[in-house]
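Readers of this paper often ask what the protein records in our data store actually look like. Below, we set out a record of this kind in full and without editing:
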Amino acid sequence: MIGAIRLTSDTVLTLSVTLVDWEDVDYAGYVLAQALGLFPDETFGEVKWVFDMDNPLSRILDQILTLLVEARVLDRRDDEGKQFRWRVVGPGYELARG
């Protein structure tokens, strides 16, 4: 559990497969939202407006991505805009080491 968010095996699988390469913050937020059960049938293009605007949903998804970085589940880089990817070593290893 990270904060008040429980990562299920489906959530982890979705993130680990879809975020294998660096993705911009909007797409990473979309992948996270889908893993949480939001936008189950919508394409990224159909909901991109959510990520283009400052709103409660886009802010909370960004906060969750940041928490996942702090928990060493995701990597983040800012050299080409804010981007995220699944941590290569794996969260179980990193979380167990503290």
Notes: Residues 1-6, 94-98 have pLDDT under 50 and may be disordered. The longest helix spans residues 56-70. Residues 9-97 form a domain with the Arc Repressor Mutant, subunit A fold (CATH 1.10.10). The helical segments are 9-18, 25-35, 44-52, 56-70, 91-97.
